[in-house]
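#data-curation
PF: Archiving a pair of folding outputs for the training set. Convention for this channel: one message per protein, sequence first, structure tokens after, nothing in between. First:
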Amino acid sequence: MQILYDSTRGGEKNVTASQAILKGLADDGGLFVPQSIPALDIDVQTLAGLTYKETAFEVMRRLLTDFTEEELKYCIENAYDEKFEVPQAAQLRDCGRESFLELYHGKTIAFKDMALSILPYLMTTAARKNGMDKEIVILTATSGDTGKAAMAGFADVPGTRIIVFYPKDGVSPVQERQMVTQKGDNTCVIAVKGNFDDAQTGVKIIFNDKETARILGEAGFVFSSANSINIGRLVPQVVYYVWSYAQMFKNGRIKDGEKINFVVPTGNFGNILAAYYASKMGISVNRLICASNVNNVLFDFFSTGVYDKNREFILTSSPSMDILVSSNLERLIYESAGNDAEKCSELMAKLRTGGVYEITDEMKKNMSLFTGEWASEEECDEAIKKYYNEYDYVIDTHTAVAAAAYKKYTEKTGDGSMTVIASTASPYKFARSVLHAIDEKYDQYSDMEQFDILSEVSKTKLPDAIIELKNAEVRHKDVIEAGEMKDAILKKLGIM
């Protein structure tokens, strides 16, 4: 069965997967969504016997139906190779009734590697399939992890350039150093004065600027996106939820068909939306627990049905979640409204103009699989310390948001279902915050010293990404105002 894609705002319909991946964002500003979610018609016993690569093929061939078997296998083989420091790209660590799904064993030690390792192959394959003769300019905003993972994925990929914007002073020191030291003649990263929402809004405005698109086209360029708004980012993320469920069964943690919870630390909503798509494909899910930090706009939304971004923006120790406009939520809004593009457009217009919208009771009912929780900075520190003391296991600050939120959820509900917590970043990426939570005596040491201390504390070897970072040369130094983003792009491309 061929799966085609529509825009959430109705302007484009019946688009192939490869066309949707190439475009990233629809011409009307909407996001591409599959017209239907195909069933993963494979029993769990069979799934449990598949490798991560084999699982990826089975999931992706059902959603990216205009890619041939040979093309998909080429993309998967090249993506999930020795770049990952564990055999299956991801791994599970059991702690009581919770299992942490470690998604940070890739090149940039964050979960974004799971999708951004394959996106360049999907995109360049899609370009060939569609006779694309222009150079693809990947334009993206990052709250910390997407930028580095995207640049690492696209670095020196023929026929592509990548320009990343990040909020100056809005990412961790390690995240910033990873980005500004990125190699590759086709890579560029620029700091924006402001927060992530300023950078993300700027990127969306540029994507929707027809005049800019015309200028780029005449110069031989075309925009695409590596953000989770690109369906080529979202589909590979579905894989690890399917894989983790099968591994839970294989390890005897659950029975065939048993419903489990997924807890996902959430900012832009793409990661937890992928878990939702996995459930629609047939994975047995009890609850999807959307975990927020103190920027808890999503917690309020799932509690009240009102999305309101008009609040203080708070910088936290989990910066990748410091987001007030969760772009991927639009896909869920569209579906919960019965694929009503007009209703979706109306709500997104309200968000754009007034910063607030409210969904109907029927839409709330259609989102019943989701629930929200949030955690304070203190609760996150407590979670890090708890898992270290009780299980000799070290988690990062974003995973701690999920762990602390899950604790609150179980205290409220008494739900004893087996649970997978998405562990989205290596603790090395936030070593200072992690060690501070374990014991404040570590505060006195420098950032570089803390890497070695964390290695001793966690009884793990330094990831290659950290070793490389120690002596890396700073290559990207630009800092601009949000209003200067368009001109910065044109300059970097040599157009002005």
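PF: Second:
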Amino acid sequence: MPTKTPAVSDDVRALAMLVHDRLCAEYGCPIPYFHDFDPLSEMVSSLLSHRTRNADSGRAFKQLRARFPTWEQVRDAPTAEVEACVAPCTWPEQKAPRIQQVLRAIAVRREGELSLDFLADWPVIEAREWLEDLPGVGPKTSAATLLFSRLRMPALPVDSHHHRVAARLGLIPANVAVGPAHALLEAQLPPDWSAQQVYDNHEALMLHGQKVCLHAKPKCEKCVVLDLCPFGQARLVKPAEG
């Protein structure tokens, strides 16, 4: 997580706000939060969700909590048992030991306490830096932990759908990967936005990517931001006759 905010031009900032307003009107902002987890639970949920459908990662999380009611039990369990619980996810053989590694690291840094509730009193940028020092925790997981959990802190996660929409609209260069895109897209938002407004921005772009701006066959003719989208306009241009 960079400590220096990227420079954003007035034109890009204006485009980001116009896109936000149109997509919020389309998808009904304010959008209700889908989780009310404590931040540690949200972090584990986010780690499970990587490259996994929401239904599958949700099932894995529920199985894990049903088998091990406390995070201390998850941390200390045989890794094979944790892996069996999270089997609905992609790469359970990687995610099970990684989750245990993260839990051990938190316990060490917090002198035995397995909780992230203390981050509620921290500035967002410092909280994200602390989280991203944990093994395997990148910008998406740190932002999700702060925004989606009951901490409700204004940190912007960027998933693959959000990233695709932003790149096609020209909010970020097409060659910028998802990780570095976090800082660029967050810098386009007003610094005084509430967590709900940041959440709406993420959810609206994500939903647009899931419903309209599809990876293989985007429905550009149904897009409410088509007039703002170089990708969509180029795609719908008909070949010249003659």
